[in-house]
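Hi team,

As requested, here is the filled-out complex form for the adenosine monophosphate run. I kept the field names the same as last time so the parser does not choke. Let me know if anything looks off before we queue the next batch.

— J.
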Amino acid sequence: MRVLVIGSGGREHALSWALSASPLLTKLWVAPGNPGTALIAENVAISAIHIERLVQFARENEVDLVVPGPEGPLVAGLTDAMAEAGIFCIGPTAAAARLEGSKAFAKQLCDDAAIPTALWEQFTDAEEARDFIRRRGAPVVVKADGLASGKGVVVASTVEEAEAALDAIMRDRAFGDSGAAVVIEECLAGEEVSLFALCDGTDAVFLGAAQDHKRLGDGDTGPNTGGMGALSPVPGFDAAAAMDGFIRPVLAEMARRGTPFHGVLFAGLMLTADGAKLIEYNVRFGDPECQALLPRLRSDLLPALLAACDGELGRFDLRWTDNASVAVVMAAPGYPAAPEPGSDIGDLSAAAAVPSALVFQAGTRVEGGRLLADGGRVLTICGTGADLAAARAVAYEAVGQVPWQEGFYRRDIGLRPSSPATP
Ligand code: AMP
Ligand code: GLY
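And here is what came back:
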C-alpha cells in the first residue's frame, strides 16, 4: 500500500508513526509533514489546502490511500476530489464534513436524530442575535457557524462579553465568512470527554476516548488553546453507551439523508448532571488526543482505514493494549496569541530514548542542522504505562529530557479534573 498522510502537526506525526508499523505499507508520504515525519516517511512540499496539487501528486505516484489529518481540506472537498481521481481517501465528503464545517448543521442533525445537546438558536441577523442574548442573559455560548481554527467559540459569563463575541464574529468578521451566521447556546457544565469512532457509512468501531486539556495554564486557567495535553482512556467513561448515543444515530441520519459519513468521527461531549450532551462534532482525529490514542492501539491501523473506505468495518474489531497514555504538549513562548519562532529545541534523542515514551513533532523546522521551533504547539511527548499515573511519570520524565529552554508545558496533564493540580 502506498499511503499519503496530509497535514503537518503532532497528530499527523502520530498517524504516520502508526501507519509505518503496518506490514501492508510499502511507501509513506506526508504532505507537507514536518521534520519528525521526515524521519519515518518522505515529506512532500504541498500544503494541506492545495487540493488540486494533492490529487495530482496522488495520481502521479499511484497512491492507494490518502489519510487526511485536519478538517480544512475535508470541508473543502478533498475526499470528493480524490474519489473523482479514483483514489481512496479516508475522510468524509464535503457534504458529510458539514458536521464540523457548520455548527448549525450539526445542531439541527442532533435535533433530528434526538441526540442530547445544549439548547440552541441560529442567527444570520446580528441585531436579532443581540436581542436574544439580552433576553436570555448570561452565561451563554456564542459560536461562529463555520470553521474558525478552534477560535470561534466564546463561553461568555456576562451579556457584555457575549455581545463583544457577537460583534467580533458577525460585524468584524474575525473569522471571515465563518461568521455569516452564529449559533447561540445554553451553557453546559461538567467534565468534557472526546469520543472517537472510525465510520464506514453504516458501521462504526470505537477508536478510544480521551480528555483534552484546552486551557493554557495549570489547573485549567488562562486562554483556550488547540489543546495542551491529553489522557486516555477516561476512567469511568461508558464508551459503549456513548457510541450508541452519539455516533450510531449520526451515521444513521447521515445515511438517511444520502450523505453517508466515512472517516473518523469525533464527538466532543460534556458529562452534565443530566447525562452526556454533545458539544460539537469534528470529522477527524483531535490533536493532541490522537497522539494519546494511537500508542494504545494494538491492531494494524491501515486495514482498518481501508475497511472504513470500503464499507467493511462491520467485520472489524480493533484491539487495544490495557495501557493508559498521557500526551504533554510543549509550546513556544507567546502561544497561543503570538508564538515566537526560531528558538533552538536541541537534540530529542534522550527524550525519545526514555522507555515507553514517544516524541511527536509539530511546529518544528530544521535549519543548518539545528531543530528550531516554528509554530505554537511544537512537540507532543507521549508516555504510556499501566495506569494514568505511570503514563504521566513516563511522559514528564521524557519532557525533562528535552533540552529546549524556551519551551513551556502544563505540569498537570493526566491528572483527572477532580484531582488537585500538583506538579
Ligand atoms: P468547540 O469549538 O465547539 O469544541 O468549543 C470549544 C470549547 O468551548 C469546548 O471544548 C467547551 O469547553 C466549550 N463549549 C462549547 N460549547 C459549550 C456549551 N454549550 N456549554 C459550555 N461550554 C461549551
Ligand atoms: N484537541 C481538540 C481538537 O483537535 O479539536
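Two things worth flagging: The chain has four domains: 2-89, 125-180, 191-315, 324-399. The pocket of adenosine monophosphate (ligand 1) is lined by residues 118, 141, 150, 153, 155, 185-188, 192, 214, 268, 279-280 (CB under 6 Å).

Thanks,
J.
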